[in-house]
Amino acid sequence: MRAIQVTEYVKGPLDLKVSDNVPTPRPSATQYLIEIHSAGTNFFDLLQIQGKYQHQPALPWIGGAEFAGTVAAVPSSRPQGGSNPKYQVGDRVFGATQGAYATHVLAGEDTLLRVPAGWSFEDAAGLFVTAPTAYGGLVHRATVRSGEWVLVHAAAGGVGLSAVQIAKAMGATVVATAGTERKRQIAREFGADYVVDYRDAAWPGEVKTLCARHRTGDGRAGVDIVYDPVGMIEASLKCVAWNARLLVVGFAAGTIEKVALNRVLLKNVSLVGLHWGQYARFEKETVGVVWQGIFDLVAQGKFRGIAFTDESFVGLESVPRALQALGGRETWGKVVVKVIDDHAGQSKL
Ligand SMILES: NC(=O)c1ccc[n+]([C@@H]2O[C@H](COP(=O)([O-])OP(=O)(O)OC[C@H]3O[C@@H](n4cnc5c(N)ncnc54)[C@H](OP(=O)(O)O)[C@@H]3O)[C@@H](O)[C@H]2O)c1
User: One Pfam match, by short name (predicted)?
Assistant: First the structure.
């Protein structure tokens, strides 16, 4: 098969090369063989190829984690007393496991989900991490309610754009922050009610003004929920209402904040963390509930794919450029590489 196989750590994504003769994984007793059509990119892929990520497989390994494709072979054996395979050959699935920058990958049943009806592989390849992070955070951790105001930081990013849609679907008003005009336009297109440029240091004042103008009661002081994948909790405490919940989702800005806890007390607010990846380990029962909630929103037309479309990335050769664009903060939504260009009807294998 073809794959981006890392045999030694590289300085940056443009040093990555496609190998033509990587052995295709053999159908497995316990895992599904997937033919990959699209692969999602993640910031941690950039760290991993440089040897700077917390999870570094022994060299050589294949880069990439998120994918969507078709089942090429089902597990040949089932555990004793186990049920039949959930997916059949030809089924359209998406998921995440090491080795998505390839034409084929092996994946366990618990790392796969069915591509929603009507969805492209491209959109599905960006769903596995972003959507449940936003849904799990807003619905299960921050218990968002209809009528509340939600401030979504980096709203045009992968987890941000998902959060905008989910907050809207739950009946909230969304204030979205983003660093460029194009990104703020995207946040609006996905449902944000108000947009704010958070590169302007006065942005908390702008959020407060919006709340004072459009809200009543305690809400005049600020928003009810802050969804923060960037590391902006300290500044966000300036524009929250009584009983607000501030969700710590990530540190895209690169710094882990220290927060003055007296503000948490004085404003009667909650700081809430979310580590979606660990739900499969510590709270398995919630994983299915979250996905059912997402698939219900998809069926109701309230949640759509967020694949970046300003530039297209076709074929494994485009992975370096896709990762470069992601790392350069040039993109919005989810940067996805079409390993096979389904629209052109031609295989890039
Ligand atoms: N807690 C969890 O379970 C969980 C799950 C998934 C992801 N995450 C974390 O959430 C964060 C965002 O993930 P994502 O997939 O949405 O990433 P993404 O698509 O790359 O978006 C990140 C956004 O952060 C903003 N940003 C602010 N400062 C930045 C900087 N110095 N460098 C790069 N971007 C910066 C950018 O928006 P502007 O240009 O508009 O500022 C960018 O669009 C990451 O830290 C990720 O690790 C956490």
Answer: ADH_N
Atom of ligand 1 nearest to the CA of 155: 40
Q: Does some domain include residue 178?
A: yes
Q: Give the residue, by CA position, lying nearest to ligand 1 atom 31.
A: 253
Give the closest residue to 167 by CA, choosing from 183, 185, 147: 147
- Is 291 a domain residue? no
Residue 261 located in a structural domain: yes
Which mutation among 275, 329, 331, 332 tests ligand 1's pocket best, with the greatest number of atoms within 8 A of CB?
Answer: 329
The answer to whether position 348 is within a domain reads: no
In terms of Cα–Cα distance, which of 342, 320, 329, 303 is closest to 130?
303
Q: What is the maximal distance between C-alpha atoms in the chain?
A: 65
162, 184, 230, best to mutate for ligand 1 pocket (most atoms within 8 Å of CB): 230
Residue 55: which pLDDT band, with cuts at 50, 70 and 90? confident
CA distances from 275 to 133, 279, 293, 311 (A): 8, 7, 18, 31
User: Closest residue (by CA) to atom 37 of ligand 1?
Assistant: 154
List the domain range (segments joined by +) for residue 248.
Answer: 129-277
Residue of the nearest CA to atom 20 in ligand 1? 157
Residue 172 has pLDDT above 80, yes or no: yes
Residue 120 has pLDDT above 60, yes or no: yes
Residue 158 and residue 87 in one domain: no
Q: Is 253 in the pocket of ligand 1 (CB under 6 A)?
A: yes
**Same-domain status, 112 and 171:** no
Closest of 39, 96, 68 to residue 287, by C-alpha: 96
Q: Is 38 found in the same domain as 114?
A: yes
- Note the pLDDT tens digit of each residue in 204-246: 999 999 999 999 999 999 999 999 999 999 999 999 999 999 9
User: Does residue 126 have its Cβ closer than 6 Å to ligand 1?
Assistant: no
pLDDT digits (tens, 9 = 90+) for 244-263: 999 999 999 999 999 999 99
